[in-house]
Design brief:
heterodimer, A: mainly alpha, 13 helices, 71% helix, disordered C terminus, B: alpha+beta, 6-stranded mixed beta sheet, 5-stranded antiparallel beta sheet, 27% helix
């Protein structure tokens, strides 16, 4: 009993330390974003007066003049398109890898792993040239394609692991029940792999949402610039003021979709969804 | 409903392993056919070829008179019950049972009606809206059966459907399956490794070994007239006792005595043979009474062990012998090793089991006088394992 109590106390301390370590920068950011421009450098953790001016400035001027709205839309659209395409392709690929024996299977897996390990920075230069030649520079596809390249391997690996867990008999049962292979896949396998599908979706979305490297290198205007890149182009009230306040506010705003996305899908990642499929 | 015909069906896997070799089997409309054999004998592969889950390397499978080799499982109109049930965990019992009908585009009211009808047959009505995870093993098994019967298919295919249940429930479900099949009169192919299930359930039983069909017949035929050593040893529990014998001019010399066996079908006049005698054909000589003089041989044996089950009494003893050498028996021993971890054989000795009348007074360590009903003696060729005569032939000494 005493041993258990001590363990609990130690765990609590450890968790609190980690939480403080992780949350202080976020709280600091929120604090900065709420300070009016005049007191932004006052070094106090809790703002002496609260103001939403920074947030207001982000959205001022509507879609045409605001430095933030268009990049936010770009970010959302690009990340969502990337996620949908990546998950669709990855689930087909992962299903084949998990279920079928075909020549070149190991090669595909090894290739996927190699791509995931490849440093993105080394592709930026060639991509810049190629995209300009192909007319993909500063377009949505120009970002979506590299995002897919780097997120697909990850998604495939996650999904293969989940598909392998699903008993093959379930699919055979579906076939005997009169399902086409595609129906068996969509009505039985995918719903059962849902936790895996959502996990992969979250990972891909976060990857695309957070990317700065490709966004800064392969865009030149608000036509396709995403929020992480756009933040670097923020200006202050005049050319002599730091845009600290508005950058903080923008950083807080871009965190919100991630939180919503994770919370939304987390509820679906219910452990033990597959329990009871077979005798267990 | 339809008959199923396997015509020279062979399955060769990618690695060259021949799982089923040139199998011919005709299953009549409405018949309950059991495929039985030790693990790895190809019985499940054969079933899966009928289902369409496994490609057929050569030969032909016909369901209801039509060749189905190139049809996918969904176009064969068969229902299958899997060993692990394979229930869809994300669906309720109702959805599980109605899934096939839904795929077939049957309208909702009709699906509900059929599902409820099947549920009442299987006593599942109060569980229709639960998920498989919340059901007991027996209930899951019944849902799996329900999923099959809702469809009213041409045939049921069952792959060891009861092997995941505990012993008591298995016996109960065995009767259930039997009742269901005779009510529905749907052609059924049932795979099991359990010879008791095979004997109690089937109209006919097909025994397989190493991909080859050994014998097809009613349970009584298999028991009384096994065609070879393997079938003789596989069917029956406890298993048939085997001992080496020397055949010479209508008499066979056994470790337990000399027996007059009359003419041997096939003309083999002399040479070594394997003799088989079922445990119930041995009896305590003091109990036999009149029969003792009529037929059979009486011999003495030192009893190693006595097991009393109340209704029966099993006495184990051994006879000195070189042992019986045969591939077919080696397979059986290996199978028994898998199941029990003990083969029950010792070097230079052959263990024999006798099923005695419970009133017998034999005790462990006694030297008892036993009587063998040699009219039931089966003789086999030690090389090929083939039966040398069918029972019912001459054998009485009188």
């Amino acid at each position: 009993m005493e041993h258990e109590n001590r363990q609990r106390v130690l765990w609590t301390i450890a968790i609190v330390v980690v939480l403080i370590f992780a949350l202080i920068p976020v709280l600091w950011l929120i604090s900065l974003s709420l300070k009016p421009p005049g007191s932004i450098t006052d070094k106090s953790f809790i703002p002496s007066e609260f103001s939403l001016e920074n947030y207001k400035s982000l959205f001022e001027g509507g879609i045409d003049d605001s430095p933030f709205i268009k990049p936010l839309i770009n970010s959302i659209v690009i990340a969502l398109i990337t996620t949908v395409i990546a998950i669709t392709l990855a689930s087909f690929a992962a299903y084949a890898i998990a279920r079928l024996e075909f020549p070149g299977k190991r090669l595909i897996l090894a290739g996927a792993l190699a791509i995931a390990m490849f440093p993105p920075i080394s592709t930026v230069g060639p991509l810049f040239d190629m995209w300009r030649a192909l007319g993909l520079y500063d377009t949505y596809p120009g970002l979506i394609i590299p995002y897919l390249t780097f997120s697909l391997p990850l998604a495939i690996y996650v999904l293969v692991a989940f598909f392998r867990e699903i008993p093959w008999e379930l699919e055979q049962a579906a076939q005997v029940d009169g399902a086409t292979p595609f129906q068996a896949f969509t009505k039985v396998i995918v719903p059962l792999a849902a936790p895996g599908v959502f996990t992969a979706a979250i990972l891909v979305f976060i990857f695309a949402w957070n990317d700065f490297l490709f966004a800064i290198s392969l865009t030149s205007s608000d036509a396709s610039r995403t929020v992480p890149a756009a933040l670097a182009f923020f200006t202050g009230e005049s050319s002599f003021t730091e845009p600290t306040g508005s950058i903080s506010a923008a950083a807080v705003v871009v965190t919100v979709p991630i939180i919503i996305f994770v919370l939304f899908f987390q509820r679906r990642i219910v452990a033990g969804l597959t329990a009871g499929a077979v005798k267990g | 409903m339809a008959e199923i015909v396997l015509d020279g069906v062979t399955k060769v896997f990618g690695d060259g392993f021949e799982a089923v070799k040139d199998m011919d089997l005709e299953i009549a409309d409405g018949e309950f056919m059991i495929l039985v054999g030790p693990s790895g004998c190809g019985k499940s592969t054969a079933l899966r070829m009928i289902a369409g889950l496994e490609d057929i390397s050569s030969g032909e499978v016909k369901i209801g008179g039509e060749a189905v080799n190139d049809r996918s499982p969904k176009d064969r109109d068969i229902a299958m019950v899997f060993q692990n049930y394979a229930l869809y965990p994300h669906m309720t019992v109702r959805e599980n049972m109605g899934f096939a009908l839904k795929l077939a585009g049957v309208d909702k009211g009709e699906i509900d009606r059929k599902v409820e009808e099947a549920a009442s047959t299987l006593d599942l009505e109060q569980h229709l809206d639960r998920r498989p995870a919340n059901l007991s093993g027996g209930q899951r098994q019944r849902v799996a059966m329900g999923r099959a019967i809702v469809r009213d298919p041409k045939a049921f295919l069952m792959d060891e459907p009861l092997s995941n249940l505990d012993a008591k429930l298995r016996v109960q479900m065995r009767t259930e399956v039997s009742r269901l099949q005779s009510d529905l009169e749907t052609t059924t192919v049932y795979v099991t490794h359990d010879q008791t299930e095979a004997m109690t359930l089937g109209d006919r039983v097909a025994v397989m070994r190493a991909g080859i069909l050994q014998q097809v017949g009613t349970p009584a035929e298999l028991y009384e007239e096994p065609t070879n050593l393997f079938v003789a040893g596989f069917i029956g529990s406890p298993a048939m006792n085997f001992m080496p014998g020397e055949l010479d001019g209508g008499k066979v010399k056994l470790p337990i005595g000399e027996v007059d066996v009359g003419d041997i079908a096939g003309g083999g006049g002399s040479g070594s043979v394997v003799a088989g005698l079922r445990p119930e054909n041995l009896e305590d000589a003091s109990i036999v009474g009149d029969l003792r003089g009529e037929r059979g041989v009486v011999f003495e044996a030192e009893i190693d062990l006595v097991e009393s089950l109340g209704s029966d009494l099993y006495a184990y003893f051994h006879i000195e012998s070189e042992g019986v050498q045969s591939d077919q028996l080696a397979d059986l021993v290996a199978d028994r090793l898998d199941e029990t971890g003990a083969a029950g054989t010792r070097e230079g000795q052959e263990q024999v089991v006798a099923r005695l009348d419970p009133t017998s007074k034999v005790k462990r360590g006694d030297t008892a006088e036993l009587w063998a009903d040699t009219s039931k003696l089966q003789l086999f060729d030690p090389e090929s394992g083939e039966s040398l005569r069918r029972s019912g032939a001459a054998g009485d000494q009188s």
